[in-house]
Amino acid sequence: MPRFAANLTMMFNEVPFLDRFEAAAKAGFTAVEFLFPYDHPAEEVGKRLNGNGLTQALFNLPPGDWNAGEKGFAALPDRFADLQQSLKTALPYVQATGVKRVHLMAGIADRSDARAVAAFRKSVAHAAEFFAPHGLDVVIEPINPRNVPGYFLNDFIFARDLINELGIANLKLQFDIYHCQIIHGDVTMRLREMMPIIGHVQIASIPSRNEPDGEELNYPFLFGELDRLCYGGFVGCEYNPRGKTTDGLAWFKPYAGVKP
To answer: Known catalytic residues?
Structure first.
């Protein structure tokens, strides 16, 4: 049975961020993820996580100036020093939460630019090497161009090929089903093909990015497919609730309380 992680950046927005850990636990989640914890002290994030008996499934490495439109800098040739510093910034949060995987964002760059491709390869390899002694996987995630125009990593095939070419043991694919359906479609066959390199899965309805309870995809079938493929990682609920978060959790009730 899939192990679901509530995304605290998008869910439980009825309460302040640090109070969302308790809200998620009360709703039956045993794991959480979020985009960025860096506005809060690492010790406080760890305290809220552990105090509610939750497992940290994932968070993103620092993306640069998010409010100014930056979405990471791994593919930006002139920002390698910022990339190096971002890994150090994340480390206290890794230690406070016990997370086992972090997402490295590529940034806004042209994938036809050879310098950007070289920068991304260098950054990905460096991040994986940096976190390997800490027992962490680094995941990279293709993001669709409708939600983030100009994002460098916008193709699952490119991501798969890069992971296979680099052959780094702790480098994995973050397979967001929502993004895959928009970019490529044929989600089930891509899950089957890419499962050996998948380190994290995320879900949302398509096209609205709401609860995974309708629209284009049959999520109960896909959850069963993850079981058939013996996927042992987390499934992050990276969706925007239509209303109050708890009012939209009927889809989750059969899975509530499943332990990591």
So the answer is: 141, 238
